[in-house]
Amino acid sequence: MKLAEALRERKQLQIKMGTLRQKLIDNAIYQEGSKPVEAPAELIKALESTRGELAALIKRINATNSSVKVGDFLLGDLVVDRDTRIMEVTALNNLIDQASQVSNRYSRSEILVLPSINVKETQKKVDQLAKDIRELDNLIQATNWNTELI
């Protein structure tokens, strides 16, 4: 199995875990004289089975990411770099959005609200980070499709 296929399977198992969790919540109580739509014991069994499957797959993905070299870097390190850059872009975009809000003053006696950053320069930084993320993601995706899962 290719690493990319394993990542898709991991996503499906994570979705299944969430679905089972919600079904357990939905069937936690029922009205007297009726029955739960689904048996909680069976749902718990399915949850345990799915968790085991997901855990085994994640361990294999992590082992693969820790052993595959892409140039001078480990694949796992590239993934961490991409993901942390995405977090940085999100935070900077939130900052830009907040700093870009227009504050209308109707008289000189009202408080003037000013941005605490240079929005234009911060946007340039975000644009460069976004480009770096795209390039890094392309490299990661290509590697995922060319790498066999351990």
Structure notes:
- The protein is an all-alpha fold and 150 residues long.
- The protein has two domains: 1-67; 69-150.
- 70% of the residues lie in helices and 3% in strands.
- It contains four helices and two strands, in the order H-H-E-E-H-H.
- A two-stranded antiparallel sheet has the order 1-2.
- A hairpin with a 2-residue loop joins strand 1 (69-70) and strand 2 (73-74).
- Helix 1 runs antiparallel to helix 2 (40-67).
- The protein starts with a helix and ends with a helix.
- 6% of the residues are buried.
- The model has no long low-confidence stretch (mean pLDDT 96).
SS content category:
mainly alpha
In total, the number of strands is 2
**Bulk shape:** flat
User: Could you name the ranges where pLDDT drops below 50 across 5 or more consecutive residues?
Assistant: none
How many separate domains?
2
What is the helix tally?
4
Query: Can you give the helix content as a percent range?
Result: over 70%
* Strand percentage: under 5%
In round numbers, the mean pLDDT is: 96
Q: Let me know the largest β-sheet.
A: 2 strands, antiparallel
Radius of gyration, taken over Cα atoms and rounded to an integer in Å = 24 Å
Strand order of the largest sheet: 1-2
Q: Order of helices and strands, N to C?
A: HHEEHH
| Distance between the ends | 9 Å
